[in-house]
């Protein structure tokens, strides 16, 4: 289907801009939200866990975590190995997560307005499959 990527990318930028505006009330950006979201859904995590999941370099996650520590949203806790940095949400981070999760869910409902549930379900199921295909393709290139 020619033009699919163009359509997707034309959605991506306005979506990220809107999310950044929404998150700015807590001095957050979407890239910082990704770390909060991961920890909330996976529990205390290492920087390697997060960087692997989002397929970004560890120094990128380290910078995000430092910023979240400055905002007192995450804190470091002892790991199995002293060299391993494990982070978890603080009480303040938990409250910010709840507030932002509600706002983001409200945004999701607004942007999906007028789109049939069946169409929403197909899109929800299709996007992860596309990601999996891209990851497989990247894996073949490195072999």
UniProtKB/TrEMBL annotation:
SUPFAM superfamilies: Winged helix' DNA-binding domain (SSF46785). It holds the Pfam family HTH_27. Keywords: DNA-binding, Transcription, Transcription regulation. InterPro entries: HTH_MarR-typ, WH-like_DNA-bd_sf, WH_DNA-bd_sf. It comes from the Bacteria. PROSITE patterns: HTH_MARR_2. GO terms for molecular function: DNA binding; DNA-binding transcription factor activity. Residues 1-132 form the HTH marR-type domain. The keyword Transcription regulation applies. This is MarR family transcriptional regulator. It comes from Niallia endozanthoxylica. The lineage of its organism: Bacteria, Bacillati, Bacillota, Bacilli, Bacillales.
């Amino acid at each position: 289907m020619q033009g699919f990527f163009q359509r997707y990318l034309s959605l991506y930028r306005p979506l990220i801009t809107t999310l950044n505006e929404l998150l700015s009330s807590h001095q957050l950006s979407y890239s910082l939200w990704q770390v909060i979201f991961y920890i909330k859904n996976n529990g205390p995590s290492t920087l390697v866990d997060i960087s692997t999941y989002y397929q970004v370099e560890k120094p990128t996650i380290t910078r995000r975590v430092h910023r979240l520590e400055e905002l007192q949203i995450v804190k470091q806790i002892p790991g199995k190995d002293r060299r391993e940095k494990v982070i978890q949400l603080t009480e303040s981070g938990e409250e910010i997560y709840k507030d932002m999760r509600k706002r983001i869910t409200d945004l999701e409902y607004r942007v999906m307005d007028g789109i049939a549930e069946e169409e929403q379900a197909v899109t929800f199921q299709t996007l992860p499959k596309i990601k999996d295909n891209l990851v497989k393709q990247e894996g073949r290139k490195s072999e």
